[in-house]
């Protein structure tokens, strides 16, 4: 990763327009428009059930939108235009697109039967065809970067939650993603382990990684986010620079949310 500063270019890396999604008649995303530029960190805040996870999952087509489009790196995700209409892409295209979008979950989701090193080596070898030796060398560098040099041979169950989540971040980085999605990455951790994971995320943000982060860590949002986005009832009710949105929220729903978590 380079130390490139956040760069605002005219075309956003992530461009979401008119996104809608319902589950069994319940509207979960109700027309979401969102841009995230290269090198930016956008933090998504909002109450439970507001659609944050669904929005993240739609970005890498783990959920199919009912309407609207997601573009990453100028390419439609999960869809293509054909004959003037939107069609779902084939599984190979979707797999290739997902390979460039890393995702970090609340529950780590490491492969329990694989060593730490093999957790990082698996996807680059299987999906990208990287030679194993090269993938292993890169994995060691990444483990060092997240503060886990020397733990290559451990299994996930032998690590603390904070260590497992740092492995999960390193595993996402092993695919050299153009974008990282985080869904409440510290919510399952004991409080004393939250800081070590946030520190790794701050380091990534500083290195220029583009990140879309769902979290309730307001201090992290204040320090690291370029944009804070409030979601409520499947709509973006407010977004802007953290110093503005977090100190002077204008929408009643974002005020209520902040009052509850601060
Ligand atoms: P958040 O992450 O903000 O808590 P979610 O995106 O997980 O919100 O969920 C928003 C709403 O959509 C919730 O009411 C949830 O129950 C519902 N939901 C999410 N995923 C599914 C699904 N696969 N099937 C049915 N309902 C779902
Ligand atoms: Mg969620």
Can you characterise this structure?
A six-stranded mixed β-sheet has the order 8-9-10-3-11-12, sandwiched between helices. Strands 2-1-4-5 form a four-stranded antiparallel β-sheet, with helices on one face. It has a domain of 66 residues. The chain is built from nine helices and twelve strands. With 262 residues, the protein is of the alpha/beta class. A hairpin with a 2-residue loop joins strand 1 and strand 2. The site of magnesium ion has 3 residues, from helix 1.
Give a quick precis of the structure.
InterPro entries: AAA+_ATPase, ABC_ATPase_HisP-typ, ABC_transporter-like_ATP-bd, ABC_transporter-like_CS, MetN_ABC_transporter-like, P-loop_NTPase. The chain has 262 residues and is α/β, with parallel strands linked by helices. It has nine helices and twelve strands.
Task: Please specify the SSE layout and strand pairing.
Blueprint: E1 14-23, E2 26-36, E3 41-45, H1 52-59, E4 67-72, E5 75-76, E6 79-82, E7 85-88, H2 91-99, E8 101-104, H3 116-128, H4 132-145, H5 161-173, E9 179-183, H6 191-206, E10 211-214, H7 218-224, E11 227-232, E12 235-240, H8 242-247, H9 252-261
Parallel strand pairs: 3-10, 3-11, 8-9, 9-10
Antiparallel strand pairs: 1-2, 1-4, 4-5, 6-7, 11-12
The chain binds adenosine-5'-diphosphate and magnesium ion.
Residues 23, 28, 46, 48-54 line the site of adenosine-5'-diphosphate (ADP).
Subcellular location: Cell membrane
Keywords: ATP-binding, Cell membrane, Membrane, Nucleotide-binding, Transport
Membrane topology: Peripheral membrane protein
């Amino acid at each position: 990763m380079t130390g490139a500063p956040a760069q605002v270019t005219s075309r956003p890396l992530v461009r979401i327009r008119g996104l809608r999604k319902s589950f069994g008649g319940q509207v979960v995303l109700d027309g979401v428009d969102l841009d995230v530029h290269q090198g930016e960190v956008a933090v998504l805040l909002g109450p439970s059930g507001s659609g944050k996870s669904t929005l993240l999952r739609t970005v890498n087509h783990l959920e199919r939108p009912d309407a609207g489009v997601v573009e990453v790196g100028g390419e439609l995700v999960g869809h293509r235009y054909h004959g003037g209409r939107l069609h779902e892409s084939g599984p190979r295209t979707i797999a290739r697109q997902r390979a460039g979008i890393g995702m970090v979950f609340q529950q780590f989701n490491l492969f329990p039967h694989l060593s730490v090193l093999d957790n990082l080596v698996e996807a680059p070898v299987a999906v990208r065809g990287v030679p194993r030796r090269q993938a292993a060398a890169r994995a060691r560098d990444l483990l060092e970067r997240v503060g886990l040099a020397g733990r290559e041979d451990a299994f996930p169950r032998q690590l603390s939650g904070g260590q497992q989540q740092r492995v999960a971040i390193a595993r996402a980085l092993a695919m050299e993603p153009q974008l990282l999605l985080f869904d409440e990455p510290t919510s399952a951790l004991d409080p004393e382990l939250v800081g070590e994971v946030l520190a790794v995320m701050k380091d990534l943000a500083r290195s220029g990684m583009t990140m879309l982060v769902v979290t309730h860590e307001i201090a992290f949002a204040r320090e690291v986010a370029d944009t804070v986005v409030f979601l409520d009832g499947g709509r973006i009710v407010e977004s802007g620079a953290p110093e503005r949105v977090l100190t002077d929220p204008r929408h009643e729903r974002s005020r209520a949310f902040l009052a509850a978590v601060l």
